[in-house]
């Protein structure tokens, strides 16, 4: 089946300018050669710590920031270099849900208008027809159509995220890029939104690029998972394989660091030393060698490439 | 608790961490009447300001109904009458009724200040929105022009413009409006810059919306609150500037009753002999400016709590 | 053997006077922190856990807030009854606090070392040099490499994890009896969170400080605390040892919360097909329903729940719960 999204060797480098003349004095390698594809109806989870570039991947894929190089293939077309006007029809194919339910809705527009707007912008529907469509979308995401006239501040965080999802659904996209969609929500509300996203996938065959730092949430919702570290994917596999048999030492450490809500489980944690290095000066060789408990001499000089270690399970580590 | 925490981070993190809890609590009291009552109780000075301004506005609108003497008609036999009887506020050297002139003066004062503030704000919004949204060289050039405009005091700039254009109602409005552009342009520009980063603007871009639509539909409405705050503050200075220009003879030409001109005509000669010629226009100017300032402070607290000083 | 209590909170009640009316942020909360233990207070935003922590430190912003009832006894002395000057001698000395956001809690214009030394000199009669030496020592104790160098750096020069370590160093500089940690790792990445929690537990065992840990993360609770207090809508609704609480949660809210979070299947062995939702949302504190505040979201609610606030009762040894149906639901 043709993937809904195929990303090839995507790079996003930000020049760092400093001094009076704003000369370029360095480069932030926010995303540095990322490739993946998402099949229809499938969820790819993208995990990693802050600064690893996972949100930049999302924003680059959505063309909110311009990629430095690489291909973003949607419906057989590389959208990486398209003009704004040429991009518009592809906007209907992929939509986005943001992290912060408080800043992602225009506070001066009613919830109904927010969900209606994409229909108007793309001339999909207007007037009565649009009203009916908006009401249907409200019902679909678990809001009462009677709430269409309310403004964002009258909704709770979870409800606002539902509005955000309804807005993303309005154009019937095939892919939704969800950037930390539940991390700003209360624990008891997260389950509501996760279940909603999974129900929508089941009913409409939506595909998700699901970006999160919570490994348990990613495991729950994803089919495949990619782990990012300093702008690169270090491991990529189907969910079960990655969580049961992590190959990369970083994945191993991430999983070990997650606090598990079960006091009977006294695990020995594999604590990582130190902090994530700056993406302005990624370490030579394997970027993870500064924190890796197994690092050897060659890790410091030679950058590992992604290798298939088991069917469909790739990792970038010399030692596996 | 080290001083550092109390001094710097504390108040800030307090607002961030616990504000939401309280905001959630406050989000429920939403009947408009109840909110108005709450506002009046919470901001009694603002309510007083609003009351003062309302009185002036009503006086300006119904000037014909609440006066009985023509503010322009001279009446030599009744010159320099002491306040009381037929002339509540007395009469001037040409026998014109001060009360009528004050009431009709409110019309001029409000027309000029509202006109100038509106014109200044509209131009400022256009400049600020374009500057903030387009950015780049355009922004740089516009900002330097604004710097130059702001380097001159409001009155001086208004004086020069007014002198260049010549005295008339329209020219006074223009002369006061131009120096006001930079302030609103700045506010709108900085808001636009902040809003550009907001997630709902990105959401709009993701939907494939044009830049123009984003600017008008999403950015502009969100700059209204700070703009209202600023405009109210500018209203006060517009009133004062109009009075000053007229006082200097560059504002509203004779015979229209302008409070500033009423002052200038009488200040030097009659201060001792007929102080009511000075007191009433002076009080009217002060009261109106006082009212706008009270209202402005309250509006700033209500609409834009971040700027609270 | 049960250690003797160090901090006893009884009948604490903190309210906020807001435009929307009276907000009962903390309503009749009592608990005891024992010597050398980690007690977790867990709940969602708006449940009153942070305001409880601030009330203990007497740092509730006033106005609009006010502590209207209760007692907070630190080694028998009621902190709510002493003067502000006496309280200042308690804060940062006998009882200190670390916050969620290490960037805003550190003063950006003072070096980290100066901020630690300042706390020390505030409470101890020591020379500047000694206070500085103590600052460097504290940075070493929180495992910051090259502490003498780092002491001269400003907060913005440190990473998020380092800043939180510096905050802990400030909080522990005077060897407090009680450390209140308000969501200390929420703003941190998972690998850094693991480091900080590990550090806090090590320091706690070294120094014997009692820790009150405020958090929303049940995983953090399970891995660090000995006992747990669960709060909902300003009230304590359940208290138990951590093992008992996770094995047999008795309040429907606690139970629902545990079922609603996804568990790492690699750890628990099972993949949940669908998360159990707690319907509805947390009620606004200014507008609480009569009776049990959770009733509107509870599958077991009946007329009794709407009628009255359930009392906190000991349903099993050392396991307290406030639910009318705790006897029938297990």
Can you describe what's shown?
- The complex is a heterotrimer of chains A (320), B (309) and C (330).
- Chain A is α/β, with parallel strands linked by helices and 320 residues long.
- Chain A has helices at residues 54-61, 84-91, 111-121, 127-140, 157-169, 187-204, 215-221, 239-244, 249-257, and strands at 5-18, 23-38, 43-47, 69-74, 77-78, 94-97, 175-179, 207-212, 224-229, 232-238, 307-310, 313-315.
- Chain A is 29% helix and 24% strand.
- In chain A, strands 6-7-8-3-9-10-12-11 form an eight-stranded mixed beta sheet, sandwiched between helices.
- Chain B has 309 residues and is mainly α.
- Chain B contains 14 helices and no strands.
- The longest helix of chain B has 37 residues, at 98-134.
- The two termini of chain B are 26 Å apart.
- Chain C has a single domain, classed as 3-Layer(aba) Sandwich (Rossmann fold).
- The longest helix of chain C is centred in the middle third of the chain and has 18 residues, at 190-207.
- In chain C, helix 8 links the parallel strand 7 and strand 8.
- Chain C has helices spanning 49-56, 84-90, 102-105, 112-123, 128-141, 147-150, 160-172, 190-207, 218-224, 242-247, 252-260, 265-268, 303-307, and strands at 5-18, 21-34, 38-42, 65-74, 77-78, 95-98, 178-182, 210-215, 227-232, 235-241, 313-316, 319-321.
- Classes of the chains: A alpha/beta (320), B mainly alpha (309), C alpha/beta (330).
- Chains in contact: A-B, A-C, B-C.
- Chains A and C meet through helix 6, helix 7, helix 8 and helix 9 of A and helix 8, helix 9, helix 10, helix 11 and helix 12 of C.
